[in-house]
Structures are given as C-alpha cells and as structure tokens.
Write a structure and sequence with these properties.
There is one protein chain. Helix 20 crosses helix 21. Strand 6 and strand 7 form a beta hairpin. The radius of gyration is 28 Å and the shape is elongated. It starts with a strand and ends with a helix. The strands form 5 sheets. It has a 5-stranded parallel β-sheet with strand order 11-12-15-10-16. About 35% of the residues lie in helices and about 15% in strands. The chain has about 500 residues and is α/β, with parallel strands linked by helices.
C-alpha cells in the first residue's frame, strides 16, 4: 500500500518542497529510507517506529520503504519525523491516505511520541501557502510562529496521538489554544540618546547614518562613549513594518533563534559579535550554510567593537555584503544567497594604547600606530560612509544636568527624512540614499555650481577614489534631505567631507 505527504527542506534561505512517500509491502520486515537523507533523517526510522509502538500502534511485520523526493536534494534535520510517521501510517492502513493530500507536515518526534519544536517553520508555512496546500501540521511549540501566516490553516499537535486523531477525523478535532496570541510586543529598551553627555558631532553623525542607511565608524580614545553611541543607534531607527518583521522572523526561524515567547521579531536587530569571531560566523557557515551575523543583522545594526582586533579575513568578508546588501556563499552542495542589508557601526581606538595623536599620553611608537591603523584595509574603509571623531569629554559636559535630545525626538526627524527618500525612490529598487548606484547618483545627487566646484577640489586635493567620492555625495544627499533641500549645496558637501577623518587625520 502506498501513501505520501508533503514536507519541505531548507537550503540556505530557500525552501524546497519534499514529497515523503511510504510503501508497505510483503517481504522481510525492514524499514528502509532512501532519497539522499542525512544521518539525522535516517534516524527517523528508529524514532518513528519506537514512538508508534509506545503509543499502542504496532507496524505490521512487512517491508517499509520511505522515499524523500526529489532524490538529488540532500535532506537535513529532524523535521521529517512527523511526515514520515504520517506517510507510514497511511501506507499501513491506520489512516486514510487521501487525508494526507494537500497537507504539509513538519516536526521532530521523541521516543515517547511527543512532537518537538523544530527550526524553520515560518518559511515552510509560507511556502505551503504558495503551493496551495490545504493546511499545515506543525509542533504545538511552533504554533504561534506558524500562525503569523494569517491566510493559512495551521494545526499544532503535541504528540502522535493528536496527529492521528486529526488525520482520522479533522472535523471533530479541537485545536487547543496556546494563550500566547498577541504577545509579540515590541521589545523595550532602557537605552536613550539623552544619556550621552556632549559628543554633539558624533550624535549628529549617528543621525545622518541612520537617516540615509550609511555605514559609520567611531574613532577616539577609550572611555569617550563610542560603544554607548553605537548601542543607542537602534533606538533612533524607525519601527519595523509588518513585512520587515516577517522577513526578519523567517531569518531567525531558519537560524533556530525564535522562542515561544518571541514568535515575531518586532525590534530591529543589534548584533555585536566578539572580536574573536571567525569569518564563518560572520558570513554564515556549516556544510549547508546557515545565517551568519551579517544576515542576523539584516534591517538593523551590525556593531564591531574594537574593529582592528577582528581577524583580517573576517573583516574582508564584509566587503561584498556592504556593497551588495546580500552575501553569496558557494559550497560543493550549491550556492546560497542570504540577505545582508544592515548598517555597519564600528568603533576603534586610534592606536594600541588609545591616545594617539595626543603625544602627552600616547605611549606607542610611530611603527606601532601605523601597524594598528593598517589592520583595516583601504577597500574596507572606502565602504564606510562616515568616520566620526569621538574626543574626550570635559567635566562640564559630564556634570551637566540638562539632558540631551531623547531618542524619540531624533527618531521623528529620521522618519521624516526616510519619508522623503521613500517618495523619491518609489520607482527605484532602493529605499535609502546609502543604496544609490553610480547611475542613480548622477540622477538624484544634483549639486549647485559652488557645491560642484567644492567636490571637484576635494576629489583632487584629497586624492579620493571614485568609490570614496560617491560615498561623499550620498552623505551630502542625506544631509540635504535633513534640511529639506532639493539640491545639494556647498555646506552639505563641506559637512560630508568632515566625516573623512580617518583619511585626513590618522593615515
């Protein structure tokens, strides 16, 4: 007897449908799985057979063959346990095979028959909707995550008994409520820009960076507030739309970072990997690559504290995603593309001791300073739009009782600038000034005559590359938008040029 049910495999961020086919026929009793399964998937035969027996269902002493089609796609993970159990029960006569038509199942089964949560449920359910499935059956622990797809029927089961009861008589099955609906609220944070004393220039640079989605580097002595500034940047970013939240939730679902308490990502991500992190952890790694830090920071901030302390190989990994807003990883098993549209926020000291160019405090030799600064390659630095000095603060700034502008006030200005950009680029495949290409820069970065001459002089005197020049124009465009100007004036270009501090002051 034959039965089949649909499931899905995740390859990178792509969801590939998989037909789980089962055949029970006469012959020596055995359980065989074919279709390019991994070791984890092959183990499903023992988990399923034992779980069924522990729940009072004994498979007939016959030859059981399970095929996972297509056979040229490697199947990974324990999420195929539930569809394998359903297909085998259908082929054995315990269930009607027609009940499995148009259904997508996923879940891991314990030896006691409990259905355990798995990662990657949300993208699978979205794929099931695209394929026109009648319903999805998922572990009860993943039910809230799966219900984010509002126009898809989703059934959550706790154990094999509930699965059998639903498939045997769907109309009489009563879905238990999780009691968690509507709990996915925006994460609250106590951090606020009003806590930062002084550093008006760095605060201004942070606002420009968020307004135009520009990358930024904070450089200054220890204890001046570089990390404090970086950690507050998400608080001035506009709230996520539902589509952006769903996109982020898919990424975190594939990475296995969702919890029942957080089924929907509502806050923009802030990823701060340690400087000992490997290149693979930043880009995404594994035999079949999963999301790395550059992907987990999508739509948010990737913060690299003490940037020169990261390995050279790890830093150079960032060059492609900073330019393309996605990262492409090639392995023997295929090519995988992950989204990587993040703002890079980096912080560093100007030398090993941190006090250069203050020679009264700096204890480093010129060779040590040069070696430290050259840990960052010029191609990487050219992909950073703003470099902001964060100088030491004096006592009067620290002791000032009057707080600075709050994150809420700054966020209102940022949202107005974002609206200007959304309207300007409504017919373009971009959303922010930081994403402008060469041809788009010529179209949208219109300079006045005086601003054009200033930019020309800067290009020649500062020996800028074409990429650096374009970055200056993008920042100038954002500064002009913050003032509501259609054209870019000389004052906008002049301010953008001040944010090339690394090139002018330290190298």
């Amino acid at each position: 007897m034959f039965a089949s049910v649909m499931s899905a495999a995740i390859s990178g961020m792509e969801v590939c449908p998989v037909n789980v086919e089962a055949d029970v026929s006469d012959g020596l009793p055995c359980f065989t799985m074919v279709g390019f399964p991994s070791t984890q998937v092959k183990e499903a035969q023992d988990r399923v057979r034992t779980a069924l027996r522990n729940n009072g269902i004994s498979l007939p002493p016959k030859r059981v063959t399970v095929n996972l089609a297509p056979a040229d796609l490697r199947k990974e993970g324990a999420g195929f346990d539930l569809p394998v159990a359903a297909a085998v029960l259908g082929a054995s006569g315990f269930l009607e095979p027609k009940q499995l038509n148009g259904a997508m199942l996923m879940g891991e089964i314990s030896l006691s028959g409990e259905v355990r949560s798995v990662s990657g449920v949300l993208p699978r359910v979205i794929r099931a909707r695209e394929l026109g499935c009648r319903y999805c059956m998922v572990p009860f622990g993943n039910l809230e995550e799966a219900r984010l797809v509002r126009d898809m029927k989703v059934i959550g089961v706790r154990n094999i008994t509930e699965m059998v009861n639903f498939l045997a008589d769907p109309d009489s099955f009563k879905q238990e409520q999780t009691g968690e609906e509507g709990r996915a609220l925006e994460e609250q944070t106590q951090a606020d820009f009003m806590e930062i004393c002084g550093q008006e220039s760095a605060r201004r640079a942070a606002e420009i960076a968020v307004s135009g989605f520009h990358n930024i580097l904070f450089i200054g002595p220890p204890g001046t507030g570089k990390t404090m500034l970086a950690r507050r940047i998400p608080t001035i970013m506009p709230s996520l739309t539902f589509e952006e939240s769903l996109e982020l939730t898919k990424i975190y679902s594939v990475a296995g970072l969702l919890t029942p308490k957080r089924p929907l990502i509502r806050a923009r991500p802030f990823r701060s990997p340690h400087h000992t992190s490997s290149a693979a952890s930043l880009a995404g790694g594994g035999k079949i690559p999963g999301p790395g830090e550059v992907t987990l920071a999508h739509r948010g901030v990737l913060f690299l504290d003490e940037m020169p302390e990261f390995s050279r190989r790890g830093l150079e990994v960032l060059r492609q995603p900073l330019e393309d807003k996605q990262i492409q990883l090639s392995r023997a098993s295929g090519t995988y593309v992950f989204p990587a549209g993040f703002i890079l926020v980096a912080a560093m000291n100007p030398c090993p001791c941190g006090y250069y160019p203050d020679m009264n405090k700096c204890r480093c030799s010129p060779g040590e300073v040069s070696h430290y600064l050259h840990k960052l390659s010029q191609p990487l630095l050219e992909r950073i739009d703003l470099c902001a000095d964060v100088p030491p603060v004096d006592f009067s700034q620290i002791s000032c009782v009057k707080p600075g502008e709050s994150s809420a006030v700054i966020r209102e200005r940022v949202e107005r600038v974002r609206q200007i950009q959304s309207k300007r680029y409504e017919k373009e495949p971009i959303c922010f000034n930081g994403e402008l290409s060469g041809k788009q820069i010529q179209k949208y970065c219109v300079l006045t005559e005086h601003a054009f001459k200033m930019a020309q002089n800067a290009f020649e005197l500062m020996d800028l590359s074409a990429r650096s020049y374009h970055r200056i124009l993008k920042v100038s465009r954002t500064i002009a938008d913050m003032e509501g100007e259609e054209e870019i004036h000389s004052r906008h270009v002049a301010e953008a040029l001040t944010y090339r501090a690394f090139d002018k002051k330290y190298k």
